[in-house]
């Protein structure tokens, strides 16, 4: 759906009910900028705002697929300083993410977890319909491994953001996004699948 700004108010509501939550964040970007064009709230800042408000359990935040251009010589410093685990895309290339997700499940434990999936975490060869595409991203199979790897976690909410169908005349981005959302619904606690 909408841009990644929507995750900020969602996490405000989730944290009001559950306290600070863990986060499985799939994205090409960390979305921890401070401001853009003078604004503190935009699609590149939601997780910095969440940290500032204490909405995240920073020891249980993992960001997967991060890559692309940056305005900073050490673009992941803020995240690591907060205690986030940053998994750059190049650490995911040409391999299964099943082992990574076993580690993530241990890290998340049984406390509440939120999944936030930016479609630009995937390579634009698969999902060109987004506003900030970055080359050399994840594959749809890896996306499924991440989402299915969250099964058994105490998931209290999820989103899939940054889909812009007008940038993809094939419709593949929207189709992929719909299927990933379906997969997220399937890993919610209490959902029985075959």
From TrEMBL:
<protein>
    <submittedName>
        <fullName>SPEB protein</fullName>
    </submittedName>
</protein>
<comment type="similarity">
    <text>Belongs to the arginase family. Agmatinase subfamily.</text>
</comment>
<keyword id="KW-0479">Metal-binding</keyword>
<dbReference type="GO" id="GO:0033389">
    <property type="term" value="P:putrescine biosynthetic process from arginine, via agmatine"/>
</dbReference>
<dbReference type="Pfam" id="PF00491">
    <property type="entry name" value="Arginase"/>
</dbReference>
<dbReference type="GO" id="GO:0008783">
    <property type="term" value="F:agmatinase activity"/>
</dbReference>
<dbReference type="GO" id="GO:0046872">
    <property type="term" value="F:metal ion binding"/>
</dbReference>
<dbReference type="InterPro" id="IPR006035">
    <property type="entry name" value="Ureohydrolase"/>
</dbReference>
<keyword id="KW-0378">Hydrolase</keyword>
<dbReference type="InterPro" id="IPR023696">
    <property type="entry name" value="Ureohydrolase_dom_sf"/>
</dbReference>
<dbReference type="InterPro" id="IPR020855">
    <property type="entry name" value="Ureohydrolase_Mn_BS"/>
</dbReference>
């Amino acid at each position: 759906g909408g841009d990644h700004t929507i995750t900020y108010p969602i996490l405000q509501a989730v944290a009001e009910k559950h306290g600070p939550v863990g986060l499985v964040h799939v994205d090409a970007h960390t979305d921890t900028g401070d401001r853009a064009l003078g604004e503190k709230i935009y699609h590149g800042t939601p997780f910095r705002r969440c940290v500032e408000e204490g909405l995240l359990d920073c020891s249980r935040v993992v960001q997967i697929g991060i890559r692309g251009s940056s305005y900073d010589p050490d673009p992941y410093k803020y995240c690591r300083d907060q205690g986030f685990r940053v998994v750059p895309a190049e650490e995911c290339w040409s391999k299964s993410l099943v082992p990574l997700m076993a580690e993530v499940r241990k890290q998340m434990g049984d406390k509440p977890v939120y999944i936030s999936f930016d479609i630009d975490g995937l390579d634009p060869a698969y999902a060109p319909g987004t506003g900030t595409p970055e080359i050399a991203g994840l594959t749809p199979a890896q996306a499924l491994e991440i989402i299915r790897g969250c099964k058994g976690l105490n998931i209290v909410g999820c989103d899939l953001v940054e889909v812009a169908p007008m940038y993809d005349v094939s419709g593949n981005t929207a189709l992929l996004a719909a299927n990933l959302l379906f997969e997220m619904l399937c890993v919610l606690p209490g959902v029985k699948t075959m």
